[in-house]
Known about the structure:
binds zinc ion; two-stranded antiparallel ribbon; globular; 8% helix; 1 helix; 106 residues
Amino acid sequence: MDDTPRFVMIDEPFLCRVCGFEVKPLGYTARDHCPRCLCSLHVDNMPGDRANECGGVLRPVGVEMQRDEYKIVYRCESCGETKRNKAASDDDMNLIIRLSANPVRR
Ligand SMILES: [Zn+2]
Ligand SMILES: [Zn+2]
């Protein structure tokens, strides 16, 4: 018997609800935001689990540098929760750089 809860990454194409961009699967990890406008949806508790029922739009509000990695800081338009997602390799770098100029308000 194997009833260990499995951590499932869902990597699937989707239409961005914010800008309408057709987002392709990322391939190396679960895509969790749109590479064009960087918006995401509040659907995860843990990255990729789609277990959160809020469903609000996560707007990027800033960027944090962690070692050599960018983390996009989001605020949910519906519930106000703050979340962080790793930037993906094909994210719009210009947007990330513009966001990184914003001090993140906590
Ligand atoms: Zn988008
Ligand atoms: Zn929310």
